[in-house]
Amino acid sequence: MAKIIYTHTDEAPLLATYSFLPIVSAYAAKAGVEVETRDISVAARILAQFGLADDSLAELGELATTPEANIIKLPNISASIPQLKAAIAELQAAGFDIPDYPENADTPEAQEIRAKYDKVKGSAVNPVLREGNSDRRAPASVKNYAKAHPHRMGAWPSDSKTNVATMGEHDFKSNEKSVTVPADDTLQVVLTTKNGEKVVLKEAIKVLEGEVVDASVLEVAHLQSFLKDAIARAKSEGVLFSAHLKATMMKVSDPIIFGHVVKAFFADVFAQYGDDLAAAGLSANDGLGTILPGLDKLPNGAEIKAAFEKAIAEGPALAMVDSDKGITNLHVPSDVIIDASMPAMIRGGGIMWNAEGKEQETLAVIPDSSYAGVYQATIDDCRENGALDPATMGSVPNVGLMAKAAEEYGSHDKTFEIAEAGTVEVVNGAGEVLLSHEVAAGDIWRACQTKDASIRDWVKLAVNRARASATPAIFWLDEARAHDAQLIEKVNTYLADHDTEGLDIRIMAPEEATKFSLERIRRGEDTISVTGNVLRDYNTDLFPILELGTSAKMLSVVPLMNGGGLFETGAGGSAPKHVQQLVAEDYLRWDSLGEFFALVPSLELYAEQSGKDGAKVLAATLDKATESFLNNDRSPGRKLGTIDNRGSHFYLALYWAQELAAQTEDAELAAAFKPLAEKLAAEEETIVAELLAVQGKPADIGGYYRPDAEKTTKVMRPSQTFNDALAAL
Ligand SMILES: NC(=O)C1=CN([C@@H]2O[C@H](COP(=O)(O)OP(=O)(O)OC[C@H]3O[C@@H](n4cnc5c(N)ncnc54)[C@H](OP(=O)(O)O)[C@@H]3O)[C@@H](O)[C@H]2O)C=CC1
Ligand SMILES: O=C(O)CCC(=O)C(=O)O
Ligand SMILES: [Mg+2]
C-alpha cells in the first residue's frame, strides 16, 4: 500500500518534526493518506549496528530503489569522530549497552566494532537514499518573497583582502586520471611498493559498461609546504586563517587533510610533543577540541597546552566558530563545512569572526583546487562589483549528478592514506592497468565511480528542467580536467537523445560558469547550473544563501531512477546552534519552509501511487497555504518575543485548514476542515500567546542525540488550545 515515509533525523529538524508532524499526520489521516515515520538519526543508526534498534536506513535504502518510494528526508547529522563519540557516550549514559569507539583497532573484536561505527560515521545517510539525481531550486514564491523582503548582506569593500588559497598542483585536480570502461568488469586497486611487494588496497570493485572511473592522489609533501605558505601568507597579509573542508561527506580524505592543517598550524608543538600526543591517542585529525581536554591526562599536559597557546598567539589570527567559548576553526573537523561556511562568509562581506568576536577578512584555505576557483571567482566579483542585491538578483537553480554515490562523494571506500611509497594501479579483470599513480608514504589516493545510467538520467533531468523553467542551462565541466573530459563526451552524446530545440544549453569550466552566472544574476537573470556531485552540494548552498539568506527555503527533489521520489527538505544542514538556543531559552529559529515544500510533491506522488484524489487536494491546498504563509511573513523571527518554529507551524496549519475548507473539489474534506479552520482563526490570539509564553526559560528535552520523546513533545507542543483543536479534527 502507498505510504509517505517521514524521517526522524537530528538536531533542529528533529525538534521541528515534533511540532510539525502531528499536524501533517492529522491532516493526512482525514484524506486517507498513510504517513509513517522511520528513525534514521545518528543515535538510531548506532543502536541499529548493535541490534538495539531497527535498521531503518537499510530499509529505506532498499525502498529507494523501488517505484513505491515516497520518502521525506530531513537534514541529518553527518558525524565526525568527536560527534560520534559524544553520541556513544550519551547512549551509554542512557543505559544502552554499546561499546566505546575503539581508538586502536588492534584486535579482531575491536576491528569489528570499529567497522560498525564506521558505517555510522560521516555522510552515511544521503548516499544510501540518493538513488536519483537532484533538482534543487527556489520556488517562485520564495524568490518573490526574498525580493520583497531582502535579507541583510555585508558590504564588500573594493580593497578587501579576503581570498582563497589553493594548491593548484600536486593535488586531486591536477593529478586526476579518468577512463570510461567499455564493458562490465571487476577492478582491483593494487599498491606495488618500492621493493616490489604487492598490497591489494581494494578487492573487487564492480563496474558497469560505460562507467567513468577516476583515480587521483593528493601529494602530502606538497600539501604540507602549501599549508606552511598559506599560514605565512595569512600572517603577513594580516587576515584570519581559515580552513574549509567537507570532513562529513569526504569522511576519509578530509579529516586527514584537516589533521595536516592542524599539524601545520602547530608545527613546533607537533615537532616537540608529537610522540607524546600519539602515545596518548590524541590525533590532529580530531582537532583541538579533542586534543586540548585530552592533555589533562598527560604528566606534561600543562606544558603542551602552553605550547599550543603560544602557537596561537604567534601564528596568524585564527577564524573562530564561537569566539565567546574560544572554539576555533581548528577545533572540530565538522564545525566548518565548506558548502555552508564559504557562502556565509561571502554573504557577510568576506569576513569571519576573530578571537575578540570582531569581523575580520580571511584567507580561506581550500587545499584541493578542483572547485576552489568557484569561490575565488565569486569573491573577485563581489570585490569588483560590490555585494549582490537580494532585492534584484536572479537565481541559480541546480541539477546535480548524484545518483548511486556518483563521483567524489562515493569515494570513501576507495580512499587510502598510503602506508609505503610505490605505485598505485587500478587493474581490470584482464589484468590491464587502467590508471596508475606514483605515490609517497602519507599521500592520499582515491578512486571515484560514476555510473553511465546516472549520467544519462542527469542529462535528461537537465533538459527537462531547462524546458520547464525556460532558462539557460550550463553544464559546469572543465575539458582540461580528466574526469570532466569523459563527462563532456557523454553529455554531448546524450543531449542528442533529447529535443533541445530552442533551449540554451552550454558547457563551461566551473570558474567561467561562475562568472557567467554572476553576471546574469546581477542583471536579474536566472541560469541553471548543471553540475557534478560536489558542485551540486556547493552551489545549492552558495546561491541560495546569497539569494535567500539561507538554503533552508529550497525545493529539493530527487526523482528516483527506478520511479518514486525522495523529497529532501531544504539544502542546508541540521543547524546545531538552533538546538543550543532552544535548550537555553526555549526558542527554535529553524525555518521549516523546506519541509512544507517537500510535502507538496510528496503528496502529489502519493496521489499518483494510490489513486486517492484526497492527496491531490491536500497538495494543492498546502501549496496555496505556503504562499499565504510567505505573504504574511510567518517564518520564525530571529528574536525572542516573535513567533518561532512552533508558531510558524500553527500559521501553516491555519492557512492549510482554511484552504481545505474553501476548496470545492472534495466536499467531504471541506466539511471536515471547516470547524478546524474556524476554531484556529478564532483562537489565533490565545494560541500565539500560549506559544510565546514559554519563551525565555531553559527547555529540557532530555538528550541531544536522542532527546526524550515525551519531554520533547511537551516542549515542542506547548499550546493546549492548538493541541486540543488538532485532536478534535
Ligand atoms: N541534507 C543533509 O542531511 C545535510 C546535513 N548537514 C549536516 O548538518 C550539520 C550542520 O552543518 P552546517 O554545514 O553547519 O549547516 P547548517 O545548515 O546546519 O548551518 C548553517 C547555517 O544555515 C542556516 N540554516 C540552515 N538551515 C536552516 C533552517 N531550516 N532554518 C534557519 N536557518 C537555517 C543557519 O544560518 P544563519 O544563522 O546564517 O541563518 C545555520 O546556522 C552537520 O552535521 C552536517 O553534516 C549539512 C548539510 C546538509
Ligand atoms: O550528507 C551530508 O553530509 C550533507 C549533504 C549536503 O550538504 C548536501 O547534499 O547539500
Ligand atoms: Mg550541502
UniProtKB/TrEMBL annotation:
Entry's EC annotation: 1.1.1.42
Enzyme class label: oxidoreductase
Catalytic activity: D-threo-isocitrate + NADP(+) = 2-oxoglutarate + CO2 + NADPH
Pfam families tied to this protein: IDH (PF03971)
Keyword line: Glyoxylate bypass, Magnesium, Metal-binding, NADP, Oxidoreductase, Tricarboxylic acid cycle
InterPro entries in alphabetical order: Isocitrate_DH_NADP_mono
Cofactor: Mg(2+)
Family: Belongs to the monomeric-type IDH family.
NCBIfam families, per the entry: monomer_idh
UniProt protein name: Isocitrate dehydrogenase [NADP]
